[in-house]
Amino acid sequence: MWGMARIDRVGLLAAPIAVAALFLPFMNIAANRIVEGEPRPILESLTSVQAAGLFLAVGAMALAALLRVPPASKAVMAGATALVAAIFAGLAADNLAADAGSFARIRPASGFWLLLFACFLTMANAMAHIRLNPWVRLALGISFPFLLVLLVASGIWSNLSLLKEYANQAQAFWREAGQHLFLSGGSLLFACIAGIPLGIFCRYASRARPTVLNGLTFIQTIPSLALFGLLIAPLSWFAAHIPFAASLGIKGIGTAPALLALFAYSLLPIVLNTLAGLENVPAATREAARGMGMTGRQQLMRVELPLALPAVLAGIRIVLIQNIGLATIAALIGGGGFGVFVFQGLSQAAIDLVLLGVIPTIVLSFTAAVLMDALIDISRASHRRTRST
Q1: How far is residue 341 from each of residues 44, 99, 109, 240, measured CA to CA in Å?
Q2: Rounded to an integer, what distance in angstroms lies between the CA atom of residue 60 and that of residue 119?
Q3: Residue 338: CB partners within 8 Å, gap ≥ 6?
Q4: Superfamily of domain 167-388 in the CATH hierarchy
Q5: How far apart are CA 357 and CA 338, in angstroms?
Q6: For residue 8, what are the contacts with CB-CB under 8 A and spacing of at least 6?
Q7: How many Å apart are CA 326 and CA 345, to the nearest integer?
Q8: What are the CA-CA distances from residue 19 to residues 53, 58, 113, 199 (Å)?
Q9: Are 196 and 272 in contact (CB under 8 A)?
Q10: Where are the domains of the chain?
Q11: Which residues form the ABC transmembrane type-1 domain (predicted)?
Q12: pTM, full prediction
């Protein structure tokens, strides 16, 4: 019983995965960018000293994951092991590239990705038990993408095929990165401008509320690709019959239908969360505001909306992460974004080109989730301090 009490239940999953990853192919080397290539285990990818270092790091992390060690120590160890694995992937690519041709493509294999999964699973489990200051979490969320940029700039991954694809597509990559941010962020901004007032309207117009919410719910039931396609015909008509619309760049394919579709998908979570936040304001607080002589508008702006802010931010978090993912599909209708690389890679059977679009999308989603969670906690803490004073 004592022994089982010392075992972390999530570690029972993460530790065996980490150990199993050491015996799976660590790298894959192919003659060019489109052939499958050959898997290489750790002992064939790294020198004996490098392999021993990786085995020790993973073994220590697996033991920490399995036992009930302090969560902070566990999180640091899992993060350090993930960083070590990433660095050793670059070293393995250098080792394999020494005997390969200039057209060879070297990419991480299943063992590497499974090891990263075990590290992030352990880290997430540990972070769930750590009450970090939200400002610290905000700083960590901001620093994560900068750490990746630093690793790329260091050149340690220069022989990985993903970085070779990036070198060939660098100008297009940053252009599509800006477009992806514009689509996801722009649609979120427009949804906030329309959705928050609509949520306020639903709070006070109880008769119109079912119609509004049912309409927005119906939009959510339409598959994303179908909605993108449905917008092509009406926007093409606008571009053909209204010259001013065409001059603004509104047309059947491209940015306009992608932005409009993402905006439509964004409305329901923001409206619902705004409505929920307003309805959860305590009745005693409203009575106190009226007792102070506040008008309805003053009560809304000074009391109800500030108290509903955490719920509104939670809706914005949902929409931001949703739109970062959905913006990838916009490439199918000429909307651009990281989906350009995903679909180009699929059409060319080039996995590294697919990853050039997938990995930045995941990093953006993860960073957005961490930042928004921190902002929500900051707003809640601010409200608790306000109520206590």
Answers
A1: 31, 29, 20, 30
A2: 12
A3: 176, 177, 180, 327, 328, 331, 356, 357, 358, 360, 361
A4: MetI-like (1.10.3720.10)
A5: 5
A6: 65, 66, 67, 68, 125
A7: 18
A8: 14, 7, 13, 50
A9: no
A10: 2-130, 167-388
A11: 177-372
A12: 0.85
Pairwise CA distance, residues 58 & 117, whole Å: 12
| DSSP string computed for 181-234 | HHHHHHHHHHHHHHHHHHHHHHHH-TTTHHHHHHHHHHHHHS-HHHHHHHTHHH
CB 324 within 8 A of CB 357: no
Question: How far, in Å, CA of 200 to CA of 362, rounded?
Answer: 33
Query: pLDDT tens-digit profile of 266-277?
Result: 999 999 999 999
Q: How far apart are CA 224 and CA 377, in angstroms?
A: 31
Instruction: Please give the full DSSP string across 294-355, using - where no structure is assigned.
Output: --HHHHIIIIIHHHHHHHHHHHHHHHHHHHHHHGGGGGGGT--STHHHHHHHHHHT-HHHHH
Taking only the tens place, the pLDDT of each residue in 319-376 is 999 999 999 988 888 888 999 999 999 888 788 899 999 999 999 998 999 889 888 8
For residue 281, the model assigns a pLDDT of 86
Structure tokens at 353: 């080109």
Question: C-alpha distances in angstroms, 164 versus 161, 170, 229?
Answer: 5, 10, 34
Structure confidence by residue, pLDDT tens digits, 202-258: 998 888 899 999 999 998 888 877 777 777 767 676 666 666 655 555 666 767 888
Burial class (CB in 10 A: 0-12, 13-18, 19+), 184: buried
Q: What is the pLDDT of residue 238?
A: 63
Task: Name the band, by pLDDT with cuts 50, 70 and 90, for residue 2.
Answer: very low
Q: State the residue for tokens 């304001």.
A: 281
Q: Of 310, 311, 312, 317, which is closest to residue 380 (Cα–Cα)?
A: 310
Query: DSSP string spanning 58-109?
Result: HHHHHHHHHBT--HHHHHHHHHHHHHHHHHHHHHHHHHHHTTS-TT-EEEE-
**CA 85, chain centre distance (Å):** 21
Nearest Cα to Cα of residue 367 among 211, 177, 142, 202: 142
* Residue carrying the six token digits 């409009």: 260
Strand-by-strand arrangement of the 38-40 sheet? 38-40, 27-30, 105-108
List pLDDT tens digits, range 19-39. 999 999 999 998 777 777 899
154 contacts 147 by C-beta, under 8 angstroms = no
